[in-house]
Write a structure and sequence with these properties.
This protein is mainly alpha-helical and about 190 residues long. The chain has helices at about 5-15, 20-40, 45-60, 70-90, 115-120, 125-135, 140-150, 155-160, 165-190. Residues about 90-105 have low confidence and may be disordered.
Amino acid sequence: MAVQTEAALVAALKQRDPAALATLFEQYSDRIYRLAVSVLHDEVQADGVVQNTFLTLIERVQDFEGRASIGTWLYRVAHNECLMRLRQAKPIVDLVEENDDAPAMPTHLVDWQTVPDTILSSSEAMTEMERAISRLKPDLRTVFVLRDIEELSTAQTAEILGVSENVVKVRLHRARLALREQLAAYFEERAR
């Protein structure tokens, strides 16, 4: 979305123009839904996140200052809504974090270039990829979805999550390594 187009859209939203809301909903609702499903693993909850995100937009559009793009702002609202729902669903008992300093060493090594494209792009492989993504830790999964699926920049992802760009880069690297490890055995078996 062009800067002046976005500025005009935000101005129309502040004037309570339903067409501006419809435009934003059409542009971002599916993306927000995918993010919410990836974080919550619940399609009904994800629908609620989409609804609450756009309700927040309606209620707080006057507070939008334009320091970030409206899309980044919506992702941030959606991510916070997801976190709130996760906290309500299960209280956090273990406050000790894992030692994230040491990267896991791979146990399966696959030369991905020897795996035929037909296997990589099959619906079965896509299903296995979705399963692997769903098994990632929530912080890694969220970064992976925002960066590699939604194709947001590192800066946008950092702003949405409220972390530094370096944290985003580290989490993305770890997510990719974890996915590679999870999928290695699957593709190794099919590449033979």
